[in-house]
Amino acid sequence: MAEKGMLVVFSAPSGCGKDTVFQELLKRRTDIVKSVSATTRPIREGEQDGVDYYFKTEEEFKRLINSKGLLEHTVYNGNYYGTPVEGVNKAISDGKICFLIIEVEGGQNIMKLRPDCVPIFLLPPSIEELRRRLIKRGTETEDVIEQRLERAKLEIELSELYRYNVVNDDLNVAVDKIEEILEIELSAHNR
User: Fold this and answer.
1) pLDDT confidence band for 3 (50 / 70 / 90)
2) Cα 124 from chain centroid?
3) Which of 20, 161, 176, 185 measures 20 to 30 Å from 30, CA to CA?
4) Mean pLDDT of 90-94
5) What is the arrangement of strands in the sheet containing 79-84, beginning at the earlier edge strand?
6) How far apart are CA 165 and CA 184, in angstroms?
């Protein structure tokens, strides 16, 4: 019997290091892929269609919605964002662990639609440490940082909806913990 893959819903407040953790997992494992989302927002310098996002017109995006081609979708800052079903299903059927790096609301939607998913929530060691990380980035104003921290507090309250909570205090420890979770879940998925 061929081993089957699985879907991982991976959420965290902004500044918790989910992209850094995912990049470290990619260095360690060959069975991981990231789900590529679709969006109607304009392509940014350095981004590639089909790699960073599938860039769609609003008309194309609405066709995907109407044809049930998206696992979930939302509107954020006037642009549509969504998860194409096709890429997720292909990755899983190819035996890959498909990571869906998604905000909490979208994560909750996926957990309802795909109860077979593995929901992992990445937590900061503390709100103070999260504030320090956001300031260190140097990409946002103090007002934006405060808004992100308020949103983070609300998102952290929802972390209990996720099967696994991992604190990202030390990168290697957090990645080790997620690898343990993946092994446990792969074993259960492939029984």
Assistant:
1) low
2) 16
3) 161
4) 94
5) 54-55, 38-39, 79-84, 70-76
6) 15
